[in-house]
From TrEMBL:
One of its GO terms (molecular function) is phospholipase A2 activity. It comes from the Eukaryota. It holds the Pfam family LRAT. The lineage of its organism: Eukaryota, Metazoa, Spiralia, Lophotrochozoa, Mollusca. This is Group XVI phospholipase A2-like protein. It comes from Elysia marginata.
């Protein structure tokens, strides 16, 4: 958490060991070079994807990956429930 912020601001650098960040001036240069070239998509290229691309050169979003895994799990549970329902009749 950064001090003195209201509300508090948290910094998540959990990916730095796997994907080392560029120096700050390079990150800014990379971000500015993307201006007007948006391909935003909630499910494939969100703000986290953009930040990671600028920050470490790798386009990825843990949010999207985690959401997809949740949807897959819920779908599997629903399918199993439907099969169980119809088999028990």
């Amino acid at each position: 958490m950064l001090g003195g912020e209201d509300p508090p601001v948290y910094v998540n650098n959990s990916e730095d060991a796997e994907f080392p960040p560029f120096p700050p001036d390079e990150i800014v240069k990379r971000a500015l070079s993307k201006r007007g070239k948006s391909k935003y998509s909630l499910t494939s290229y969100n703000c986290e994807s953009f930040v990671n691309l600028c920050r470490c050169g790798v386009e990825f979003s843990r949010q999207v990956k985690d959401a997809a895994a949740t949807v897959e799990t819920v779908g599997s549970v629903a399918a199993a429930g439907a099969v169980s329902f119809f088999v028990s009749r």
